[in-house]
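step=encode ok
step=design start
structure_in=
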Protein backbone atom coordinates (compact mmCIF):
# COMPACT_ATOMS: atom_id res chain seq x y z
CA UNK A 1 0.00 0.00 0.00
CA UNK A 2 1.34 3.45 -0.89
CA UNK A 3 2.18 5.69 2.01
CA UNK A 4 -0.14 8.66 2.23
CA UNK A 5 1.46 11.66 0.54
CA UNK A 6 1.15 14.61 2.87
CA UNK A 7 3.82 16.98 1.61
CA UNK A 8 4.05 19.37 -1.33
CA UNK A 9 6.68 21.68 -2.75
CA UNK A 10 6.26 25.39 -3.39
CA UNK A 11 8.24 28.63 -3.35
CA UNK A 12 8.27 31.09 -0.47
CA UNK A 13 8.74 34.37 -2.30
CA UNK A 14 8.94 35.81 -5.81
CA UNK A 15 12.06 34.92 -7.77
CA UNK A 16 14.60 37.39 -9.04
CA UNK A 17 13.98 38.57 -12.60
CA UNK A 18 15.92 36.35 -15.02
CA UNK A 19 16.67 36.98 -18.68
CA UNK A 20 17.12 34.55 -21.57
CA UNK A 21 18.11 35.84 -25.02
CA UNK A 22 17.83 34.17 -28.41
CA UNK A 23 18.50 35.96 -31.72
CA UNK A 24 17.67 39.43 -30.36
CA UNK A 25 14.45 38.29 -28.67
CA UNK A 26 14.48 38.83 -24.91
CA UNK A 27 12.57 36.58 -22.49
CA UNK A 28 12.17 37.94 -18.96
CA UNK A 29 10.95 35.26 -16.54
CA UNK A 30 9.39 35.47 -13.08
CA UNK A 31 8.10 32.93 -10.56
CA UNK A 32 5.56 33.93 -7.88
CA UNK A 33 4.04 32.01 -4.96
CA UNK A 34 0.23 32.19 -5.33
CA UNK A 35 -2.83 30.71 -3.62
CA UNK A 36 -5.67 32.10 -5.75
CA UNK A 37 -6.56 33.15 -9.29
CA UNK A 38 -7.08 36.72 -8.03
CA UNK A 39 -3.41 36.87 -7.00
CA UNK A 40 -2.44 35.51 -10.41
CA UNK A 41 -4.41 38.28 -12.17
CA UNK A 42 -2.70 40.93 -10.03
CA UNK A 43 0.79 39.67 -10.90
CA UNK A 44 -0.08 39.54 -14.61
CA UNK A 45 -1.48 43.09 -14.53
CA UNK A 46 1.64 44.35 -12.74
CA UNK A 47 3.92 42.76 -15.34
CA UNK A 48 1.87 44.12 -18.24
CA UNK A 49 2.34 47.61 -16.78
CA UNK A 50 6.05 47.06 -16.10
CA UNK A 51 6.68 45.62 -19.60
CA UNK A 52 4.04 47.65 -21.46
CA UNK A 53 6.02 47.59 -24.73
CA UNK A 54 6.58 43.79 -24.76
CA UNK A 55 4.98 41.55 -27.39
CA UNK A 56 3.83 38.56 -25.31
CA UNK A 57 3.16 37.77 -21.63
CA UNK A 58 3.02 33.98 -21.58
CA UNK A 59 2.43 32.07 -18.39
CA UNK A 60 1.45 28.88 -16.60
CA UNK A 61 0.22 28.32 -13.08
CA UNK A 62 -0.71 25.47 -10.77
CA UNK A 63 -2.84 25.69 -7.64
CA UNK A 64 -3.71 23.05 -5.06
CA UNK A 65 -1.89 20.58 -2.86
CA UNK A 66 -3.50 17.18 -3.40
CA UNK A 67 -5.50 17.52 -6.62
CA UNK A 68 -3.87 20.53 -8.28
CA UNK A 69 -5.37 22.32 -11.27
CA UNK A 70 -3.41 24.37 -13.78
CA UNK A 71 -3.63 26.69 -16.76
CA UNK A 72 -1.15 27.45 -19.53
CA UNK A 73 -1.47 30.49 -21.81
CA UNK A 74 0.42 31.12 -25.07
CA UNK A 75 -0.75 34.77 -25.28
CA UNK A 76 -0.59 34.96 -29.08
CA UNK A 77 2.41 32.70 -29.62
CA UNK A 78 1.85 29.56 -31.77
CA UNK A 79 -0.28 26.95 -29.99
CA UNK A 80 1.58 25.05 -27.25
CA UNK A 81 4.87 26.85 -27.94
CA UNK A 82 4.92 28.92 -24.73
CA UNK A 83 2.40 28.09 -21.98
CA UNK A 84 2.90 24.31 -22.03
CA UNK A 85 6.73 24.46 -22.04
CA UNK A 86 6.45 26.76 -19.00
CA UNK A 87 4.00 24.35 -17.34
CA UNK A 88 6.34 21.47 -18.15
CA UNK A 89 8.96 23.07 -15.89
CA UNK A 90 6.40 23.42 -13.07
CA UNK A 91 5.84 19.66 -13.42
CA UNK A 92 9.56 18.95 -13.71
CA UNK A 93 10.33 20.80 -10.47
CA UNK A 94 7.19 19.26 -8.87
CA UNK A 95 5.96 22.57 -7.41
CA UNK A 96 2.46 23.91 -6.83
CA UNK A 97 0.78 27.16 -5.73
CA UNK A 98 3.01 28.87 -8.27
CA UNK A 99 2.78 31.22 -11.25
CA UNK A 100 5.52 31.53 -13.85
CA UNK A 101 5.37 34.37 -16.36
CA UNK A 102 7.73 34.81 -19.30
CA UNK A 103 7.60 38.22 -21.00
CA UNK A 104 8.90 38.35 -24.58
CA UNK A 105 10.30 41.31 -26.47
CA UNK A 106 10.44 40.35 -30.15
CA UNK A 107 13.89 40.92 -31.63
CA UNK A 108 12.94 40.97 -35.33
CA UNK A 109 13.96 37.37 -36.09
CA UNK A 110 11.36 34.58 -36.01
CA UNK A 111 12.52 31.68 -33.84
CA UNK A 112 10.15 29.01 -35.17
CA UNK A 113 8.06 26.77 -32.92
CA UNK A 114 11.09 24.72 -31.80
CA UNK A 115 13.02 27.86 -30.91
CA UNK A 116 10.07 29.26 -28.98
CA UNK A 117 9.55 26.04 -27.03
CA UNK A 118 13.22 26.02 -26.05
CA UNK A 119 13.21 29.72 -25.10
CA UNK A 120 10.09 29.57 -22.91
CA UNK A 121 11.17 26.29 -21.31
CA UNK A 122 14.67 27.62 -20.55
CA UNK A 123 13.40 30.94 -19.18
CA UNK A 124 10.92 29.13 -16.90
CA UNK A 125 13.65 26.76 -15.73
CA UNK A 126 15.92 29.74 -14.93
CA UNK A 127 13.13 31.38 -12.90
CA UNK A 128 12.62 28.19 -10.88
CA UNK A 129 16.36 27.79 -10.34
CA UNK A 130 16.38 31.36 -9.01
CA UNK A 131 13.58 30.51 -6.54
CA UNK A 132 13.76 29.12 -3.03
CA UNK A 133 11.76 25.87 -3.12
CA UNK A 134 10.50 24.43 0.18
CA UNK A 135 8.67 21.25 1.17
CA UNK A 136 5.58 21.79 3.30
CA UNK A 137 3.21 19.37 5.00
CA UNK A 138 -0.45 18.99 4.07
CA UNK A 139 -2.31 19.62 7.31
CA UNK A 140 -5.86 18.98 8.51
CA UNK A 141 -7.51 21.45 10.89
CA UNK A 142 -9.85 20.28 13.64
CA UNK A 143 -12.09 22.20 15.99
CA UNK A 144 -12.39 20.68 19.46
CA UNK A 145 -15.33 21.80 21.63
CA UNK A 146 -15.67 20.89 25.30
CA UNK A 147 -16.75 22.25 28.67
CA UNK A 148 -14.18 23.81 30.95
CA UNK A 149 -13.92 20.79 33.32
CA UNK A 150 -12.60 18.69 30.41
CA UNK A 151 -9.69 21.07 29.84
CA UNK A 152 -6.98 18.88 31.44
CA UNK A 153 -7.97 15.85 29.34
CA UNK A 154 -7.85 17.83 26.10
CA UNK A 155 -4.59 19.63 26.88
CA UNK A 156 -2.95 16.32 27.81
CA UNK A 157 -3.73 14.86 24.39
CA UNK A 158 -2.47 18.03 22.69
CA UNK A 159 0.77 17.96 24.70
CA UNK A 160 1.42 14.21 24.34
CA UNK A 161 1.03 14.39 20.56
CA UNK A 162 2.87 17.72 20.04
CA UNK A 163 -0.15 19.20 18.27
CA UNK A 164 -0.13 22.75 16.92
CA UNK A 165 -2.79 25.02 18.44
CA UNK A 166 -3.92 27.64 15.92
CA UNK A 167 -6.62 29.34 17.98
CA UNK A 168 -8.32 28.89 21.34
CA UNK A 169 -11.16 30.29 23.40
CA UNK A 170 -10.99 28.98 26.96
CA UNK A 171 -14.15 30.01 28.80
CA UNK A 172 -17.08 27.99 30.18
CA UNK A 173 -17.57 26.63 26.67
CA UNK A 174 -14.10 25.99 25.29
CA UNK A 175 -13.00 25.82 21.68
CA UNK A 176 -9.53 24.96 20.39
CA UNK A 177 -8.48 24.73 16.75
CA UNK A 178 -5.54 22.44 16.06
CA UNK A 179 -3.51 21.62 12.98
CA UNK A 180 -2.50 18.00 12.38
CA UNK A 181 -0.28 16.55 9.69
CA UNK A 182 -2.48 14.58 7.30
CA UNK A 183 -0.93 11.16 7.91
CA UNK A 184 -1.61 11.61 11.66
CA UNK A 185 -5.08 13.10 11.23
CA UNK A 186 -7.19 9.95 11.56
CA UNK A 187 -5.37 8.76 14.69
CA UNK A 188 -5.71 12.15 16.39
CA UNK A 189 -9.38 12.43 15.40
CA UNK A 190 -10.12 9.03 16.97
CA UNK A 191 -8.28 10.01 20.16
CA UNK A 192 -10.45 13.07 20.72
CA UNK A 193 -13.61 11.40 19.40
CA UNK A 194 -13.21 8.66 22.01
CA UNK A 195 -12.80 11.20 24.82
CA UNK A 196 -16.01 11.61 26.81
CA UNK A 197 -17.69 15.05 26.55
CA UNK A 198 -15.32 16.26 23.81
CA UNK A 199 -16.62 17.05 20.32
CA UNK A 200 -14.20 17.19 17.35
CA UNK A 201 -15.00 18.34 13.81
CA UNK A 202 -12.82 18.82 10.74
CA UNK A 203 -12.67 22.35 9.33
CA UNK A 204 -12.70 23.07 5.61
CA UNK A 205 -9.36 24.01 4.05
CA UNK A 206 -9.01 27.78 3.82
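sequence_out=
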Amino acid sequence: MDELKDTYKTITKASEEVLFKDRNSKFFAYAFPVTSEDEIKEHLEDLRKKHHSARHWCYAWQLGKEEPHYRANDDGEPSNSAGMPIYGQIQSFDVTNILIVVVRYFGGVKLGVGGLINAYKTAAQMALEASYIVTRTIDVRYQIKFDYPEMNKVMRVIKENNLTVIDQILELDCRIIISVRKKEAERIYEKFDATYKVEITELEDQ
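step=design ok
step=annotate ok -> The domain at 7-135 is CATH 3.30.230.30 (Ribosomal Protein S5; domain 2).
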